[in-house]
Design goal:
Chain B: This is VWA domain-containing protein. Chain B: Pfam families: VWA_CoxE. The complex is a heterodimer of chains A (312) and B (473). Chain A is of the alpha/beta class. Chain A contains 15 helices and 9 strands. In chain A, a hairpin with a 3-residue loop joins β6 and β7. By secondary structure, chain B is an alpha/beta fold. Chain B has 21 helices and 8 strands. In chain B, α6 crosses α7, α13 runs parallel beside α21 and α18 runs parallel beside α19. The longest helix of chain B is centred in the middle third of the chain and has 41 residues. Chain B is elongated. The relative contact order of chain B is 0.07. Classes of the chains: A alpha/beta (312), B alpha/beta (473). The interface between A and B is medium-sized, with 26 and 27 residues.
């Protein structure tokens, strides 16, 4: 992808503005990462707790650039047949059966086995050509004419071998297919890898990427995010609810509420016509924020205090 | 700038952030793309290229701030900047002087007046250094300090005792000598301008000293840490002072991570195996030669088992602790570990490690099984608990000093373990020379071991565990 084709990515500020117009409020750091990834043609490895908008970042970039988003969800056991390419075995089989009759015509007049084989050799490996190739996400991303956003989601869930598979693609934007040769990207895609840190990513992979860690946002940033996503919430309620979520994040919880939960909660408070936080109201809607029964029980005693603090 | 960036990366490396040459190149690209105007943005950008974990990022940010945020040295004599002492000093010397608005101009004025009838002082006054000091030209002075620092090789500073030496070198390089000469002259002549000149000199010295301090923190801190780790890993584990224990824990974890990275990948390699072509073709005959089903030549994976038996009596407890810490830090790579602890009697402690964090579990083990050693009784217990589970895929790892207080060593049980197991490894914290002396039964037990090693510091421990990982695969 070249700068002249995408004026949206010309500077860090432009990226920030562009993202904002799609409702993705981001810190300067995130915008810098996207800018650098684009300028240096490097993949970004995005890490951070779940729900801080790692996947959303890739989606919004695709929206901003109006390019297709190609997504590869990783899981244990993901292999090259699912990620890179596969041969269309069915089609190959069908064609061999259909062409069986043709074989007689081709070999007519051939003297002995040696000559027949010689003739067959002249036809090349038709069954292993691009027509019989079934592209999977990674190959598909290489084939896009105008470039693409390639999102390799939750790469920490895949096996170690899969990581090594990614190395060639991430550093040279090409894929080696033994039967055909090397397929180079028509336009190198912009690659986002996300990880939830369930295991360490190998050094080799990290070396090829820019590393972006997205933490939970600050109060101001989160308020801006809520404002852009749920514009109807009044200002002082918005402030209160964000403060409340922030103090909730300080507690020992199994699952800490993320930005998406804050947004959901703001929506539900809006539906209930709340104009400020009340202890009873919070208790009734707490299951939007906390997803474990244990968490809800353990915070129950402190709700009053937290609500009072948030209202101050 | 590139040289500066390379130096900075050296600093990062000394603080344990691993930076490859390719990443150095990336950092250069980042710097040229972003420009140097916005410091925070540059820091974020460089951080993305150089620091690859959140932990590394904090180290990076700290290093970046102390490396680039040096700011300009402040050489003003203005009382606004450092009120207290400056004014007190001025007040002591000349009571009338305090009333004056700006002592720095008065200092300069006094010096200039003195220079009029003192050609030597005038020469000093006209030197670059003195001019910069008089005008409080911070750019020039900071540049001069940086250059002098580079000239003196300040980046090689290692010990805090070297600080004075480097300060001296830098001052000499900046031309302080001339200043000193002039002060001696003035002193001899009892010139009233003496105090003013002295003040400038002290200021200069103070700034250079600060500069050296900062550089010391930046360059030597990381290096000293590495040195410390090196020393710790070669010290006998029982000799390590209590206050260093937490460092050793970290070190063990670091070593375990290294070993895990080295061995993890290979163990997973043979999962599906290769295409079994002959079989696939043979089965294809039934389908008119079309190879409809594929068959894989699967590699049968062995399920290795590791039994760790640790002596936790007073003399060996410290070693057992670290061996267990090692083994449980490697849980992802090692086969299933079952651990046993003994001194007077033996019991299985694997469950404790499942239920508690490693450190806590080790504490409980020490508390539960510590006491006087009885190898014979303990081996009997072990045979009862686990002998039936030992087969040719089992590795038995024993850590103990083999000092049996002259009891029956029950060598017969060891023999049957030896015959059943794939390998028996004995680690002894005593040095080889002490084996077999006094009540040590080591030589008798050796006849029932495949491999034995002296093992009393982290380096040896690491080597043994590395060996273990290779052989249990």
């Amino acid at each position: 992808m070249h700068t002249q084709d995408f004026p949206q990515l010309a500077s860090v500020e432009k990226i920030q503005e562009g993202f904002e117009s799609f409702g993705y409020i981001c810190s300067d750091k995130i915008a810098t990462a996207v800018f650098l990834a684009f300028q240096l043609r490097k993949p970004i490895l995005v890490e951070g707790p779940p729900g801080v908008g790692k996947t959303e970042l890739a989606k919004t970039t695709a929206q901003l650039l109006e390019t297709p988003l190609i997504r590869l969800q990783c899981y244990e056991g993901l292999d090259e047949a699912k990620a890179l390419y596969e041969w269309k075995y069915g089609k190959q089989l069908l064609y061999t059966q259909v062409l069986k009759e043709k074989l007689g015509d081709l070999l007519q007049g051939a003297q002995g086995l040696a000559e027949s084989v010689e003739r067959l050799h002249q036809f090349g490996d038709i069954f292993y050509s691009e027509e019989f190739l079934e592209p999977r996400p990674l190959l598909k991303a290489m084939q896009q004419e105008r470039g693409a956003i390639l999102l390799i989601d939750e790469v920490d869930k895949s096996d170690y071998e899969f990581e090594s598979l990614l190395l060639e693609i991430l550093s040279d934007y090409q894929i080696s297919i033994p039967e055909i040769g090397t397929v180079k990207a028509r336009t190198s895609p912009m690659v986002f890898l996300t990880s939830n840190n369930t295991r360490d990513i190998s050094d080799a992979l990290k070396r090829r990427c820019l590393h972006l860690y997205i933490p939970f946002p600050t109060v101001e940033l989160e308020e801006r995010i809520v404002r852009s996503r749920v514009p109807d919430v009044e200002e002082h309620l918005r402030h209160q609810l964000v403060e409340f979520v922030h103090s909730l994040r300080q507690l020992d919880l199994k699952k800490i509420p993320a930005i998406s939960e804050t947004i959901d909660w703001a929506r539900s408070l809006l539906l209930l016509h709340a104009d400020q936080l009340e202890e009873e109201l919070v208790r009734a809607t707490l299951n939007v924020l906390l997803k474990f029964e244990d968490d809800i029980e353990s915070t129950d005693g402190e709700l009053g205090k937290l609500v009072r603090e948030a209202r101050e | 700038m590139p040289a500066n960036l390379v130096n900075f990366i050296q600093v990062l490396r000394s603080h344990d952030v691993r930076v490859s040459p390719a990443e150095t190149l990336d950092a250069m690209h980042v710097a040229t793309t972003l420009g140097y105007r916005d410091r925070v943005r540059l820091r974020d950008g460089l951080g993305m290229a150089l620091a690859k974990t959140p932990a590394e990022e904090t180290v990076f940010n700290r290093c970046f701030d102390s490396y680039f945020n040096r700011g300009l040295a402040d050489f003003s004599l203005d009382p606004e900047d450092n009120p207290g002492e400056e004014q007190a000093e001025a007040g002591e010397q000349e009571p009338g002087d305090a009333a004056e608005a700006d002592p720095s101009t008065s200092d300069a004025a006094a010096l200039e007046a003195a220079a009029l009838n003192n050609p030597e002082l005038a020469a000093v006054m006209n030197s670059d250094l003195m001019q910069a000091l008089l005008n409080n030209d911070r750019n020039v002075l900071t540049m001069a300090m940086t250059q002098a620092g580079e000239g003196a090789g300040l980046q090689q500073i290692q010990m805090f005792t070297q600080k004075g030496q480097y300060t001296r070198k830098m001052l000499d390089a900046m031309g302080e000598q001339q200043l000193r000469g002039a002060i001696i002259e003035l002193e001899r002549a009892a010139d009233p301008a003496l105090a003013s000149l002295q003040r400038y000199r002290d200021l200069l010295r103070e700034q250079v000293r600060d500069f050296v301090d900062r550089e010391y923190l930046l360059h030597a801190e990381g290096r000293n840490q590495q040195f410390m780790e090196d020393v710790l890993s070669k010290t006998r584990l029982s000799n390590i002072e209590h206050s260093y224990l937490h460092r050793v824990h970290e070190l063990v974890r670091k070593m375990a991570r290294k070993l895990a990275a080295r061995h993890a990948r290979k163990r997973r390699q043979y999962r599906r195996g290769h295409l079994d072509m002959p079989r696939t073709m043979r089965r294809g005959i039934a389908n008119d030669g079309v190879m409809f089903n594929t068959y894989w030549r699967q590699v049968k994976r062995e399920k290795p088992q590791l039994l760790a038996i640790c002596d936790v009596s007073g003399s060996v407890a410290a070693y057992a602790k670290f061996l267990l810490l090692f083994l449980y830090s490697l849980q992802d790579v090692l086969p299933k570990v079952r651990s046993f602890a003994f001194s007077g009697q033996l019991g299985e402690v694997s469950d404790l490690f499942d239920e508690h964090p490693v450190e806590k579990a080790i504490e409980i083990v020490n508390w539960k099984y510590g006491g006087a050693t009885d190898y014979g009784k303990s081996l009997e217990d072990f045979a009862r608990l686990a002998l039936d589970d030992i087969n040719n895929n089992t590795t038995v790892l024993i850590l103990g000093d083999a000092r049996n207080n002259n009891g029956d060593p029950r060598i017969d049980i060891m023999r049957s373990v030896y015959q059943r197991a794939k390998q028996v490894i004995w680690l002894n914290p005593e040095s080889r020379r002490a084996w077999g002396t006094g009540d040590s039964e080591m030589f008798r037990y050796l006849s029932a071991c495949h491999f034995s090693a002296e093992c009393n510091n982290l380096k040896q421990l690491e080597r043994v565990v590395d060996q273990l990982l290779k052989s249990t695969r």
